[in-house]
Specification:
With about 500 residues, this protein is of the alpha+beta class. It folds into three domains: about 300 residues, no CATH class; about 90 residues, no CATH class; about 55 residues, Orthogonal Bundle (Arc Repressor Mutant, subunit A). A nine-stranded mixed beta sheet has the order 2-5-6-9-1-10-11-12-13. Strand 11, helix 4 and strand 12 form a beta-alpha-beta unit. It is elongated. The termini are far apart. The chain binds adenosine-5'-diphosphate, magnesium ion and zinc ion. Zinc ion (ZN) binds next to loops.
């Protein structure tokens, strides 16, 4: 059935209790594929990174990628999972043109990591624990390109092209247990979970986890049940949602759609759904009943994986500082309140701030620029901070120019705006626009004399000993020099002229 009238979010939540399940696929950043030596570099010519194994040629034998296993264990450990003493790969059999073997090498009832949890911080600082069912290893499929139609979809296309460069790239699939009890915050929890997971994956160094590049994608399972009922409702599964914001919107839309269907006395179909970025809606994909049979069986061409306990413990001991721990440490180091830290987190500013500090800026300066001018610009343009066309090194350079007195804050803001507008590096902008602070006494002296001449009453006050009145004259000089005067030197020059020390 098609639903034209969604139920309002508030009304949906007044009647129904949402339950979610999140399945996140992460493409590992290994140099080679999961079961062959082919390169994983992005952007290569179609089908230039393939071999008999990842093309599924008869007789070709897979060999497992050790870094793939190591990365899976690291992810499992960071998610507080148990690591299997022994596990196997399994064949998941189905036909699809972008999967040349006609089965996907995956894991089924023997995942490498299971039974974990991840604590996620919501926007108001509340912490919600998401239970993890499993994290298992598998491989990516190739890509189809449908040609000749208006939409790029298979419908209306005259033919399709296949690129197998992605086939066999290692994936880790992380599946949550049903997430209950989030109530009206369910969409927010979904977004916060994926955000936290992304930070964790990046911190582990196993993937760049760039959602916009498809390196991390999320399937959002959602069902509703009347309050008080234990049994779950039927779920829908919105596939391949590829931004944090979309995860939240998809969950929200499905809550409103399910409620509309249920209120009408209808039944939710257990189906996959496609998410549409333009309006945040979902539309039906394929029906997916529980009888779906992939004829899983253990992969006969790969040996079982039995990670030695000593190795697992070595990996555990070598885990980097995890984002949640790092956040607590930074908050203490930077002397910030919970509220201040929360705004830094909500702005996604930590990586940029840390990179700016690493590029030589003092931490207060790094925080000031990213949370001030740059956060404002990112907000205006609806971009993430890291997507702004300015690098941490450039921000650090601006901070250095301020520290050495070549720029004041006002000029620094102009320089940053110009860098964002593509005018070049900070030094180039300063040079081209002639933005440096003027501290040369000759130029300043003239401006000071003019300010005194134009503000005789104030000048008299200073002569009478009211030194505080000098601020007004400094302001006049700054205005006349369009902010470029060295304010401290201007003040000295004014006092030298009007209130000379004996
Ligand atoms: P599939 O492979 O069919 O998608 P999985 O068990 O791998 O099934 O994943 C389903 C996800 O949905 C899991 O995160 C699970 O916890 C969750 N889930 C299962 N049943 C429901 C339900 N009725 N409502 C919401 N989420 C559910
Ligand atoms: Mg699924
Ligand atoms: Zn290959």
């Amino acid at each position: 059935m098609t639903v034209t009238e969604l139920v309002s979010y508030e009304d949906a939540l007044a009647t129904y209790d949402p339950v979610m399940g999140l399945e996140v696929h992460v493409e590992l950043g290994t140099k080679t594929k999961m079961f062959c030596g082919c390169s994983t570099t992005l952007g290569a010519d179609p089908n230039s990174q393939t071999c008999p194994t990842c093309l599924g040629m008869p007789g070709a034998l897979p060999v497992v990628n050790a870094i793939g296993i190591e990365s899976a264990i690291k992810i499992g450990l960071a998610l507080n999972c148990e690591i299997a003493e022994w596990c196997r790969f399994a064949r998941k059999n189905y036909f699809y043109p972008d999967m040349p073997k006609n089965f996907q090498t995956s894991q089924y009832d023997e995942p490498i990591a299971f039974n974990g949890y991840l604590d996620v911080s919501l926007e108001d600082g509340e912490v919600f624990r998401v239970q993890i069912e499993r994290a298992h290893m598998e491989e990516d499929t190739g890509k189809s390109l449908h040609v000749g139609g208006a939409t790029g979809r298979i419908h209306g296309a005259s033919h399709s092209l296949l690129d197998y460069n992605r086939a066999g790239i290692p994936l880790i699939e992380i599946v949550t247990k049903p997430i209950e009890g989030a109530g009206e915050r369910a969409p927010e929890v979904a977004k916060a979970y994926v955000a936290e997971l992304r930070e964790l994956i990046k911190a582990l160094g196993v993937s760049e986890a760039r959602m916009e590049m498809g390196q991390m994608r999320c399937d959002v399972n959602l069902s509703l049940r009347p309050y008080g009922r234990e049994k779950f409702g039927t779920r829908s599964e919105t596939k391949n949602v590829n931004s944090l914001r979309s995860v939240e919107r998809a969950a929200r839309f499905e809550i409103q759609r399910h409620a509309a269907v249920l209120n009408d006395g209808g039944a939710i179909l257990q189906e996959t759904r496609h998410f549409h970025e333009e309006d945040g809606s979902t539309t039906a994909g394929r029906i997916k009943d529980n009888a779906e049979d992939y004829r899983y069986f253990p992969e006969p061409d790969l040996v079982p994986i039995a990670p030695a306990r000593a190795w697992v413990e070595e990996l555990r001991a070598g885990l980097p500082e995890l984002p949640s721990v790092q956040r607590k440490r930074l908050q203490a180091d930077w002397g910030m309140t919970d509220h201040e830290m929360q705004s830094v987190l909500n702005a996604g500013a930590i990586p940029s701030i840390l990179a700016t500090i690493a590029a030589g800026a003092p931490s207060d300066q790094a925080r000031k620029w990213w949370m001030g001018e740059l956060a404002r610009r990112a907000n205006e343009t609806g971009q993430e901070l890291t997507a702004l066309p300015i690098t941490p090194a450039q921000v650090a350079r601006v901070a250095a120019l301020v520290a050495e007195g070549s720029l004041n804050d006002k000029l620094a803001r102009q320089v940053i705006d110009a860098v964002l507008d593509g005018e070049g590096d900070p030094d180039e902008v300063v040079e081209k626009r002639g933005l440096a602070v003027v501290s040369d006494d000759g130029a300043l002296g003239t401006a000071v004399d003019e300010a005194i001449a134009g503000n005789a009453a104030i000048a008299d006050k200073i002569r009478d000993g009211k030194v505080a009145a000098a601020g007004a004259l400094v302001g006049a000089v700054m205005k006349a020099t369009r902010g470029q005067a060295d304010a401290a030197r201007v003040r000295e020059l004014i006092l030298e002229r009007l209130a000379p020390k004996e």
